[in-house]
């Protein structure tokens, strides 16, 4: 790499949803950047705003939602200085998205080969014959066996794993610089998830793609991402290298989450105190409080936690946290 | 100890009509010869990929789906397809998605009260008190008696679904992906609740899940299903630390682990499960198996039983082949 310019820079992103009585902000001031060839994981529960963040970047926000504030910048090529970027502008913009549910995201009335070719035509503006040839290459690259005959298949004739590969091929059609992944493996079986994660990881390495990978699964984040941002109630509350955040969390929420997850490797038993449950439930965007938004569920809350809005502070040169008591948080 | 639930060589086949109409009717073997015993007070887990037949097995045990052949015994009694009220009451199910399995127009209290009245478990004057008791049992404040499902969070709704199953005082609880739809931070609370209820109410449980971590945290024994069959069954710790069937090993290898990056190895298991319409001869896992040999091609492996465990693999408990599995070359050769 000739320079340290990031590929994608998101600054102060807010997404607004107008409700009957007032406007709520399910994404409330999210900032991050992703380097070329890097995978940033965004982990959070339902309602944390992680999916809306991604949809805002892909320009596919639901009709009720809109980008209220913040800026997005995208490098014209790896190593260049990022330039202002409008996610809602035309398709051929270098940022594409892979969705969670491939059955509903694929047009059921088009054959697989046409779907992939169409994505190339739309995103690159090439002629259809050339797009068809490229489509076969892409299908081969994402591991679809026997692409010539599969190109004739309909989406419903494919398994979930193959459909997800088709969607990834479509996302690659325009030669994107940034791949946004919205829980692409959540609907898949664990063995198929393993295959798809390895595919995305290989594409990142081979193509130098920047990947933003959203999931609720911390273990998946640990596998696929180099850096992780933990979201809670519309905000990033902790960020850092995956290996550090997962073993040495510096936010009470991250720590609690890690303790509450039953893992394949540990013989921790439910009911005997090994699985630490977090009381309550994540808040609705209509009821985000002042101060630390996790404080109502946190056992370490003190008055100072809610005395002012919590902001991310730098604790080492590569880690940030919004937890006031980060020094006392450690995984015991 | 005697088995409270015994499933004996159960087959559940569905006739599926193909494109060419009746003449092209094919048979989907969802459950294809499953035998399983669950001891009184134990929690047995069932894991496997989608389409392996784990949910069909549950639906057949509870009487929602008709068995093609085979028997379901409960407390020494053979369960018929059409069950008596008592037989139905004693086996209850906790479904995956509380959003769609609760009546959206009924308050929590009336949902519970209806069941208690239908089964005549309390005189009318005591029904409301019993409903409050049930909410207390699942850790919900009694003010939720008058709540509608949409006024509650996902975790709270799942507690209501559990309370509803407990309302008729069952002996066996079948949990089908009971925590799959709840938030990560709420999941532990639901698992702890189930573990406590099992102790306090002396419940027997069949716990169906695709999440190996969840299964390890709550089950005493685990059965692994593949294409309608149980391919391995063992006490939980032994299954996780000393798996004998290559499919179990692949499942464990494919499960994401906290803090373990992917690396550049090929996937733990290539390809996808074959069609349950056409399982062919020999071992049904052979097309994806890393250690398949000559006998696997032609002989459907019989179950090997050893020290309270079983595995349906020609190479179970044969040390040399298990060493071979450790090497990446052997694991990934000859598949896909």
Write structural notes for this entry.
- The complex is a heterodimer of chains A (332) and B (336).
- Chain A is of the alpha/beta class and 332 residues long.
- Among the domains of chain A are: 95-176, Rossmann fold; 247-321, no CATH class.
- Chain A has ten helices and twelve strands.
- Chain A has helices at 50-58, 102-105, 112-124, 128-141, 147-150, 160-172, 190-207, 218-224, 242-247, 252-260, and strands at residues 8-18, 23-34, 39-43, 65-74, 83-84, 95-98, 178-182, 210-215, 227-232, 235-241, 313-316, 319-321.
- In chain A, the strands form two sheets. Chain A has an eight-stranded mixed β-sheet, sandwiched between helices. A four-stranded antiparallel β-sheet of chain A has the order 2-1-4-5.
- In chain A, helix 4 (128-141) crosses helix 6 and helix 6 (160-172) packs parallel to helix 7.
- Chain B has helices spanning 54-62, 85-90, 98-101, 108-118, 127-137, 154-166, 184-201, 212-218, 236-241, 246-254, 294-298, 319-326, 328-332; strands spanning 3-18, 21-39, 43-47, 69-74, 77-78, 91-94, 172-176, 204-208, 221-226, 229-235, 304-306, 309-311.
- Chain B is an alpha/beta fold and 336 residues long.
- Chain B contains 13 helices and twelve strands.
- In chain B, the strands form two sheets. In chain B, strands 6-7-8-3-9-10-12-11 form an eight-stranded mixed β-sheet, with helices on both faces. In chain B, strands 2-1-4-5 form a four-stranded antiparallel β-sheet.
- Chain B is globular, with a radius of gyration of 22 Å.
- Chain B is 33% helix and 24% strand.
- Chain B folds into two domains: 3-225, P-loop containing nucleotide triphosphate hydrolases (Rossmann fold), CATH 3.40.50; 242-332, no CATH class.
- The longest helix of chain B is centred in the middle third of the chain and has 18 residues, at 184-201.
- Classes of the chains: A alpha/beta (332), B alpha/beta (336).
- At the A-B interface, helix 6, helix 7, helix 8, helix 9 and helix 10 of A face helix 6, helix 7, helix 8, helix 9 and helix 10 of B.
């Amino acid at each position: 790499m000739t320079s340290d310019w990031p590929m994608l820079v998101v600054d102060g992103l807010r997404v607004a949803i107008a409700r009957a009585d007032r406007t709520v902000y399910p994404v409330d001031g999210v900032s991050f950047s992703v380097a070329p060839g890097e995978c940033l994981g965004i982990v959070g529960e339902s309602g944390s705003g992680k999916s809306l963040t991604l949809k805002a970047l892909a320009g596919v926000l639901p009709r009720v939602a809109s980008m209220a504030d913040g800026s997005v910048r995208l490098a014209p090529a790896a190593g260049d200085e990022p330039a202002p970027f409008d996610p809602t502008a035309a398709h051929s913009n270098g940022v594409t998205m892979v969705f969670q549910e491939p059955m509903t995201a694929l047009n059921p009335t088009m054959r697989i080969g046409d779907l992939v070719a169409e994505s190339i035509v739309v995103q690159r503006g090439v002629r259809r014959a050339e797009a068809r040839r490229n489509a076969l290459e892409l299908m081969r690259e994402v591991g679809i066996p026997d692409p010539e005959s599969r190109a004739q298949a309909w989406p419903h004739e494919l398994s979930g794993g193959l459909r997800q590969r088709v969607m990834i091929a479509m996302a690659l059609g325009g030669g994107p610089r940034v791949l946004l992944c919205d829980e692409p493996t959540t609907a898949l079986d664990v063995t198929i998830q393993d295959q798809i994660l390895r595919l995305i990881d290989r594409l990142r390495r081979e193509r130098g793609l920047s990947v933003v990978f959203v999931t609720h699964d911390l273990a998946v984040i640990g596998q696929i991402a180099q850096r992780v941002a933990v979201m809670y109630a519309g905000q990033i509350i902790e960020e850092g290298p995956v290996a550090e955040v997962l073993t040495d969390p510096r936010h009470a929420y991250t720590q609690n989450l890690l303790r509450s997850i039953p893992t394949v490797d540990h013989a921790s038993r439910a009911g005997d105190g090994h699985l630490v449950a977090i009381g309550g439930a994540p808040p609705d965007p209509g009821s985000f409080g002042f101060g630390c938004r996790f404080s109502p569920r946190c056992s370490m809350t003190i008055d100072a936690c809610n005395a002012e809005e919590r902001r991310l502070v730098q604790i080492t040169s590569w880690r940030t946290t919004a937890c006031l008591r980060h020094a006392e948080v450690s995984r015991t | 100890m005697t088995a409270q639930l015994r499933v004996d060589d159960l087959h559940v086949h569905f006739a599926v009509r193909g494109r060419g109409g009746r003449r092209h009717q094919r048979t989907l073997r969802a459950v294809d010869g499953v035998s399983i015993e669950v001891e009184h007070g134990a929690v047995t887990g069932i894991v496997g990929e989608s389409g392996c037949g784990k949910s069909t097995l549950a639906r057949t045990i509870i009487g929602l789906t008709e068995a093609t052949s085979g028997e379901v015994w409960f407390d020494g009694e053979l369960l018929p397809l059409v069950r008596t009220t008592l037989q139905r009451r004693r086996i209850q199910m906790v479904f995956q998605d509380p959003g769609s399995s609760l009546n959206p127009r009924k308050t929590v209290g009336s949902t519970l009260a209806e069941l208690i009245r239908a089964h005549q478990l309390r005189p009318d004057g005591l029904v409301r008190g019993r409903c409050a008791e049930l909410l207390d049992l699942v850790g919900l404040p009694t003010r939720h008696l008058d709540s509608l499902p949409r006024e509650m969070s996902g975790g709270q709704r799942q507690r209501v679904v559990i309370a509803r199953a407990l309302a008729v005082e069952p002996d066996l609880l079948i949990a089908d992906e009971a925590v799959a739809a709840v938030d990560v931070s709420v999941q532990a609370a639901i698992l702890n609740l189930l573990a406590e209820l099992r102790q306090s109410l002396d419940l027997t449980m069949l716990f169906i899940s695709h999440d190996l971590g969840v299964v390890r945290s709550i089950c005493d024994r685990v059965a692994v299903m593949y294409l309608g069959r149980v391919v391995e069954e063992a006490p939980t710790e032994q299954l996780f630390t000393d798996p004998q069937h290559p499919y179990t090993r692949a499942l464990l290898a494919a499960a994401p682990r906290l803090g373990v990056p992917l690396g550049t190895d090929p996937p733990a298991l290539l390809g996808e499960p074959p069609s349950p319409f056409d399982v062919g001869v020999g071992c049904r896992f052979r097309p994806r198996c890393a250690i398949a040999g000559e006998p696997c091609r032609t002989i459907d492996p019989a179950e090997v039983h050893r020290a309270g465990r079983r595995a349906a693999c020609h190479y179970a408990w044969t040390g040399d082949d298990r060493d071979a599995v450790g090497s990446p070359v052997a694991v990934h050769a000859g598949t896909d």
